[in-house]
Amino acid sequence: MVTRRRFLTATAGMATVAAAPMIACRRESGTPLPPGTLAGSDAALGHRLREGGIPEPAETRRTPVLIVGGGIGGLSAAWQLQRAGLPDFILLELEAAPGGNARWGENAVSAYPLGAHYLPLPTAEATDVRALLADLGALKGDPQAARPEYDETWLCHAPHERVYLDGFWEEGLLPKLGASRGERAEFARFHDAMAEFKVARDLFGRRAFALPVVASSRDARWRALDGITMADWLIGHDYRSPRLHAYVDYACRDDYGTDYRQTSAWAGIHYFACRNGEAANAASDTVLTAPEGNGWIVRRLAARMESQIRYGAAVFRLAQDRAGVSADVWLEAERRSVRYRAEQLIWAAPLFLLPKLATGLPPAVAAVCAAGTYAPWLVANLTLREPPAPGAGAPLAWDNVLFDAPGLGYVMATHQQLRLAPGPTVMTYYRALADRPPAEARQLLLDTSREAWAAAILDELSRAHRELPQLTARLDVYRHGHAMIRPLPGVVGDEARAALARGWGRVRFAHADLSGLSLFEEANYRGVAAARAALTALGRA
Amino acid sequence: MAEAVAAPTAAGRQLPLLISIFLVAACGLAYELIAGALASYLLGDSVTQFSTVIGAYLFAMGIGSWLSRHVRRDLIGTFVRIEIAVGALGGFTAAALFLAFAAHAGPFRILLYAAVLVVGVLVGLEIPLVMRILRREVAFSDLVARVLSFDYLGALAVSLLFPLLLAPHLGLVRSGLLFGLVNALVALWGLHIFRLELAGRRLLQGAAFAAVALLGAGFAGAGHLTTLAEGWLYADDIIHAETTPYQRIVVTRWRDDIRLFLNQNLQFSSTDEYRYHEALVHPGLATLPGARRVLVLGGGDGLAVREILKYPQIEAVTLVDLDPAMTGLFSRAPLLRQLNGDALHSPKLTVVNADAGRWLEENSEYYDFIVADFPDPTAYAIGKLYSTAFYRLVDKHLAAHGRLVVQTTSPFYARRSFWTVAATLEAAGLRTAAYHALVPSFGEWGFILAGHDDYAPPMRYEVPLRFLTAAMTPALFQFPADMARIDMEPNRLNDQSLVRTFEQEWRHVQHQ
Q1: Does B503 touch chain A (CB under 8 A)?
Q2: Residue A152: its chain B contacts at CB < 8 A?
Q3: What is the pLDDT of residues A336-382, one digit of tens each?
Q4: What fold is seen in the domain A43-119+291-372+488-537?
Q5: What is the per-residue pLDDT across A378-406, written as a single tens digit (0 to 9) for each?
Q6: What residues does each domain of chain A span?
Q7: DSSP code string of B6-42
Q8: What is the pTM of this model?
């Protein structure tokens, strides 16, 4: 797996940094910036790959199945192989830690997410996610039951979410206080429309908006929504409320890192309509979370296969012949290159990397891989000496959103603790750089210093928490250059993209990129499906 | 000093009078706004409070205007007297109402509207009188226009100043006193301008100076008002008051009655706390003759520990209370040590100042008897200590045949909350036995015993008790119809239904 950084830096210098003044330091208070680190994908390794001069493999190692990528897709594939009784695989991960978008960090105060931070109660169709949660002990009894019982360790504690607007916090994510009667009527109409989409089924009984996406109806009346943007859908259905538009835009930025004026309406509605999971011991809109976000799942999965994971492993060439598939890999730990020879290879890294290192890739596959565009993300962890003052209105919740801010708000890492006393905590701030073209946004992400981000983030959050600069002991910034594939119109419904599920010879694809939606459930589904296909090919199914 | 004796010309008086109209109008509106804000602050529902206060005030001003025609002589003297009266009454209205509210001195709403009416009548007298004073010197049409424009200007100034500057920076009490001062100073100024036309000037001057002094003193001492109000709020003498990082601790005493308040909620009264603590400890502990190790969660006052230590076979008691100020206070203050029998100095006792949930997670000892004596679930943070997850955690520390007892608010006032806790303990896999006892200072109070064995009340109590008898104990486990069990969902961390239920039930009680 070639580093993401390689692709990042390849575009360096092309885009002008017109946006830099936007985050110019506006802090007038005398509080010095808190210390912290700026991290992201492994810069040193990426540098080495970009410079070239990687030695040719000195040794050939054999494994029945080679998995490239240790995010949710790759880990789910490995989990499926273990479940099916094929524990003999090797998983290559570029970074020094597993998880991809579900990575996490930890300090003396708490574990905290570096990316994805929750999993909604799985839908009826997400059978693999349910089985995984049961296997991890988070779901009790029959995993496919209509309303399974979940271990309350992971069920998000009340209060779940609140939103800040005009000096006041309200429960929920759509502020209703001060909205006109007309706006409220639109909120209700929108809510009803989404509720209708949620239960809509076609003649075959398939849901209009299912998760994973492959289980969704192919009926043209819903698929046509993939041809327009979410913003156009709202306008076309006579939704005028600025708050409703901002709320829907928030949802698109939050789930897809994409502005709602660019997100496919099918994807935008999918966000509101796909989740119908229920629990015996929680309301259906509850989510599963942990201090480290979805890292708790990664942590447990990786622990089961620790001896088979190679960290700091960068694939720089991939080829296949009649007898097998080979991947040439730089192993940072051994400071040399080796060739892995496998019967089946599961590609669980982002698709855009594949054409850069695979030889003999069919043009149709290469075209799909190159067609995807990716949203860059910024995640910052603020270690606080004590929680912020709750402010007026709804009390501090797990997810706290500043309604008209560039960021997506913050989650509290210590929310799930059975604590009474307000001790030190970690606040995880998210921002999708969705306000400009991805390449330009990535450039901004790369060119902006930690200090500039820290100042901008403290400025933004200080609107709701004046004391935040004084409370923040450190502020660590984590950059995801290619965090999420962007579900622009035509991406989710792309037949050529869907066709990748058939694989390429001995190579199986196990990434949410195949679905066009960067969601845990999609990555898990694609990983498990790729592992099943590999097992079938090996005659082990 | 010759020029000081000369009478000011007509034109010379007009401007000061118009300025005083500006000031008087400003003060008039200020009293109205302060009364409205105070009423909505203390009574809630700001729309209702503001409209009724403003309505009453305007009505009273109408009465004042109407009454002004009965002033036939000594216009200037009357005006000065009214200014002094408005200054003193209006200025102290907010302070007095605030104290009256805290002291429960009479029906607050009646006092509020009485004050609004009195001040309104006086303010209503002001403008007509000034107009009549001015009329001696200015043509009528001119007069109305000028007076009204200064009147409205004053109102505008205050309507901007009050919400932007005064209310947030000075507060209601100080703002009121400030405007009172302005009125009193206008009186003094009037005395100066009309010094040649006034009879009995000395007396009025004395009164005005007294009003200024009084209001000034009030303004300077406004900080003490809140302390005073708090003192009245608690009715009794405060013998200890302290704000810790976790709570406000107040201990009061009236004759022999010592009371502890945490965040203004009564925790015990020494006249009947033995009822509460005997009921909390003995129905459970008396059935565990083999008990050696006891854990108390919360209960930093040491009163539950006092009851536990009555059993000689108890070898070790661990008290986990979040607030070192609580355990410190109850192990130091002689009166309080007397109350808890010096329990916090017992060699058998280990005091741990820690978060109960965290401490349970980090320790692995087992206990024969565990007492959960937390404050009522008034907020999400405390609600966590009444959840299925918390009781599962407690269960991990319960010895094989051990028992847990939970103080569980009032099954009478908060019936749904009470039975929610029972359902929560059961959802956590425990068998429950709920009971109640009358603690006069609290009302009917509830407790729930939980464990893995069936519970039967003790046949006898081996330790000295003032309240409980073995004969009456079984009756405590019987619930009359108005407190009988109702089917409730357990309190889970992911929805914390108990916090909402509890809030609804107690709000209902307080509004009765």
Answers
A1: no
A2: 388-389, 492-494
A3: 999 999 999 999 999 999 998 999 999 999 999 999 999 999 999 99
A4: FAD/NAD(P)-binding domain (3.50.50)
A5: 999 999 999 998 888 889 999 999 998 99
A6: 43-119+291-372+488-537
A7: SPPPHHHHHHHHHHHHHHHHHHHHHHHHHHHHHHHHH
A8: 0.74
